[in-house]
Amino acid sequence: MMGALTGRVAFVTGAASGIGRASAIALAAEGATVFVTDIDAEGGRETVAMIEAAGGTATFRAQDVVEEPRWAELVTRVMDLYGRLDILVNNAGIGTSGLITEVTLEQWNRQMDINVTSCFLGIKHALPAMRQPRPDGHVGGSIINISSVAGLGGSAGMSAYCASKGAVRLLTKAVAMECAAARDGIRCNSVHPGIIDTPIWQKLDTSGALSAALLGSSQPGANTIDVDAVGAGAPVGYAGRPEDIGAGVVFLASDASRYMTGSELVIDGGWTAH
Question: What pTM, to 2 d.p., does this model score?
Answer without folding.
Answer: 0.93
